[in-house]
């Protein structure tokens, strides 16, 4: 039986998901790596760590699956979006990658919008936000001119891994869309944007479809891992686009809630015509001609991680979240906003910070944990509401993916807050599954991503909304939406201290 490998280069770890031709999981492996925060609001990673993690995952799969080295035919990627990797003329990494959740570029975003805002929105379908790649490029131009002078190539994380595997540099349209350098409808690097911001087109890689082949595994690596057949490498896609195909979101009827380090509420779009005026992101999909819209909570799983590491460092997630169902919706009057690293949707604000509102002497750590789960979910609800209001969408069913889908009580909270049926994937890893699907399509196992989804995507457990909880959350969500306005000035003042 032939295999495909989907590699998800996430923010907290690199995960490999090995599937057979029927889309059945053969094995999986994972390796964590650290985030580097040199200053408040800065978030970086060493690209060398991604390579080490990938080597670890390949070694582990080889050790665990007897015919891995003889049966693997193709590899593709799902990658954290927007994060900038810069290389010199010898293709060496010049500095740590500046990540999607780094918010140092508020000044550059303002300058971009003042000079070029409307045209940028018309060309790229998005406005300048701190997380996107273009402001990071401008930040390097302004603050590290000695680095900028040496830059000759710019890649996104999964494309750097692809370069390591093949020796060729490519970027697929779904990830290119998150750079703010792509003309979304023409599917080419925008000359107007590049000229406006003095970015040489030669620094950018060749654009390619997500299931396009970028090369073969380099002979040194094939020998190192003992692969006997030629292993073909396919471009892959942005992690949220991959999660969407892995979740079977290949048409407009179903939404996706992804809770990884970030949180994403996502919907399929047939065209780039839906005008969200930059309030939501609109990106090219991994499916030929398709698009998707989404809103992003910067610290979704990251908020829960922070809470666990700070207040219950010796507990596992399972221990911390045990007994959540014993606490009523609303955590007995405790509200949490997950703005601990600033926010993106619906409040573009790098200086806002999180809060717990309504602390009471009777609250225990379990109330706080429930409030964190609820606050993260409310924040994703904000994007759902935008899609419903602006585009008239209505979601009866939502596929929940990412680490947040592991906890049954959180799935019930999602069903009740979104007021929709929640379902999860058999495969657990949405982005890795999507990446493996792109390799399967690239290898010609299926004619289209949709045909592959019919075979590879399987769901488990439907969680239905409970009417009395839905009613309770309607009231609490209305209060939640007021916390941003009520705490904004305070947070901005505190940020000056
Ligand atoms: N058992 C669990 N229950 C609830 N949440 C979990 C659990 N395990 C992990 N998580 C959450 O999932 C997040 C990681 O999700 P993942 O999809 O792996 O992220 P990424 O792709 O960003 O690396 C963690 O930050 C954590 O908050
Ligand atoms: O910035 C975005 C999307 O615009 C993030 O969703 C990143 O793509 C990182 O994803 P995770 O590692 O949290 O899955």
UniProtKB/TrEMBL annotation:
Q: Enumerate the Gene Ontology biological process terms.
A: D-xylose metabolic process; xylulose catabolic process
Q: Is Chloroplast found in the keyword set?
A: no
Instruction: Give the UniProt keywords, A-Z.
Output: ATP-binding, Carbohydrate metabolism, Kinase, Nucleotide-binding, Transferase, Xylose metabolism
Indicate which residues the UniProt annotation says bind substrate.
81-82
Give residue ranges for domain Carbohydrate kinase FGGY N-terminal: 3-246
Pfam families, sorted: FGGY_C (PF02782), FGGY_N (PF00370)
* Name assigned to this protein: Xylulose kinase
């Amino acid at each position: 039986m032939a295999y495909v490998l989907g590699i998800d280069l996430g923010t907290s770890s690199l995960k490999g998901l090995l599937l057979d031709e029927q889309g059945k999981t053969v094995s999986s492996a994972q390796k964590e790596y650290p985030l580097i925060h040199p200053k408040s609001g800065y978030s970086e990673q060493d690209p060398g760590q991604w390579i080490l993690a990938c080597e670890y995952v390949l070694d582990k799969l080889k050790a665990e699956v007897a015919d891995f080295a003889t049966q693997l035919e193709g590899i593709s990627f799902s990658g954290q979006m927007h994060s900038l990797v810069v290389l010199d003329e010898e293709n060496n990494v010049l500095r740590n990658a500046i990540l999607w959740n780094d918010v140092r570029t508020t000044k550059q975003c303002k300058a971009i919008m003042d000079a070029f805002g409307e045209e940028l929105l018309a060309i790229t379908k998005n406005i300048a936000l701190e997380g996107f790649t273009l402001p990071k490029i401008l930040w390097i131009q302004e603050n590290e001119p000695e680095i900028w002078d040496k830059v000759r190539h710019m890649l996104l994380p999964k494309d750097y891994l692809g370069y390591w595997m093949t020796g060729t540099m490519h970027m697929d349209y779904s990830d290119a869309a998150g750079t703010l350098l792509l003309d979304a409808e023409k599917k080419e690097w925008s000359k107007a944007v590049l000229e406006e911001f003095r970015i040489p087109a030669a620094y950018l890689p060749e654009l390619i479809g997500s299931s396009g082949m970028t090369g073969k595994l380099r002979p040194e690596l094939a020998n190192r891992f003992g692969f006997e057949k030629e292993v073909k490498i396919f471009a892959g896609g942005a992690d949220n686009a991959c999660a969407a195909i892995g979740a079977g979101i290949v048409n407009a009827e179903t939404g996706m809630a992804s809770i990884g380090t970030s949180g994403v509420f996502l919907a399929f779009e047939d065209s780039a015509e839906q005008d969200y005026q930059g309030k939501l992101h609109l990106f090219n999909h991994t499916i030929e001609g398709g698009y998707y819209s989404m809103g992003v909570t910067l610290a979704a799983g990251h908020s829960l991680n922070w809470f666990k590491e700070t207040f219950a460092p010796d507990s596992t997630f399972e221990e911390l979240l045990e007994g959540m169902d014993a606490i009523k919706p609303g955590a007995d009057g405790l509200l949490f906003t997950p703005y601990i690293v600033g926010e993106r949707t619906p409040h573009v604000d790098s200086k806002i910070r999180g809060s717990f509102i309504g602390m009471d002497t009777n609250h225990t750590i379990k109330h706080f944990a429930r409030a964190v789960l609820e606050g993260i979910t409310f924040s994703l609800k904000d994007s759902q509401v935008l899609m419903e209001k602006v585009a008239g969408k209505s979601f009866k069913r939502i596929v929940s993916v990412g680490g947040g889908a592991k906890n049954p009580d959180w799935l019930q909270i999602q069903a009740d807050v979104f007021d929709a049926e929640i379902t999860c994937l058999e495969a657990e890893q949405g982005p890795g599954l999507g990446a493996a699907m792109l390799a399967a399509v690239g290898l010609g196992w299926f004619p289209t991503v949709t045909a592959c989804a019919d075979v590879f995507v399987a769901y488990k457990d439907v969680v239905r909304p409970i009417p009395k909880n839905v009613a309770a959350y309607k009231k609490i969500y209305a209060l939640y939406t007021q916390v941003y306005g009520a705490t904004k000035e305070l947070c901005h003042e505190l940020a000056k201290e």
